[in-house]
Structure formats: structure tokens, C-alpha cells
Design goal:
It is built from 3 helices and 2 strands; from the N terminus they run αβαβα. The chain has 85 residues and is α+β, with helices and mostly antiparallel strands. The chain has one domain. Helix 2 links the parallel strand 1 and strand 2. Helix 1 crosses helix 2.
């Protein structure tokens, strides 16, 4: 597991890039088929950044790098949660 703590704000693009590189540096991934599950529009995530960084790190090393939108993989919002977010 790799982690990096930030006291205020968010991780920089360079920090995220370093974490992605560390997490996916294992040569056992070379030639493999990779499926990345990404959240649907009801959840927020830095999808463009992660897509770019994962493609840079794995795109030329793996046999396939696919992304699947994870629809219906979480509990539905309750009315309270829906209107407070």
C-alpha cells in the first residue's frame, strides 16, 4: 500500500503521478489485461487525471487497459444525503 498525507488542500499532479508509478511499477503487470472500475456520475473523482496517469504508466506495458463505469455498485442516496451533498 502506498500513501501520502496532505495537511491542507489536495495532492499535486506530480504527487499523484509518483504514487501511481509506485503502485503500478510491478513488472508482473506487463502483458496483463487491466480493468479499472470508475465511479458513475453520482460520485466525484479526478477521472481525467487518473485516466491520463494510468494510461501513461500502463498503456504500453499491458495487453489491454480498459475502463468500466461502475453503475449500481453502491447504495442509493437517501433523501437526506441527496439534498445535503
Amino acid at each position: 500500500m502506498y500513501s501520502l498525507a496532505v495537511n491542507n488542500g489536495t495532492l499535486s499532479d506530480e504527487q499523484v503521478s509518483t504514487l501511481i508509478h509506485q503502485a503500478f511499477a510491478d513488472p508482473k503487470l506487463d502483458g496483463q489485461r487491466i480493468l479499472v472500475l470508475i465511479p458513475d456520475s453520482t460520485r466525484t473523482a479526478p477521472i481525467p487525471q487518473m485516466f491520463r496517469l494510468l494510461h501513461q504508466e500502463l498503456g504500453k506495458r499491458v495487453a489491454a487497459l480498459d475502463f468500466l463505469i461502475a453503475l449500481g455498485t453502491h447504495m442509493a442516496f437517501t433523501s437526506l444525503i441527496k439534498y445535503t451533498n
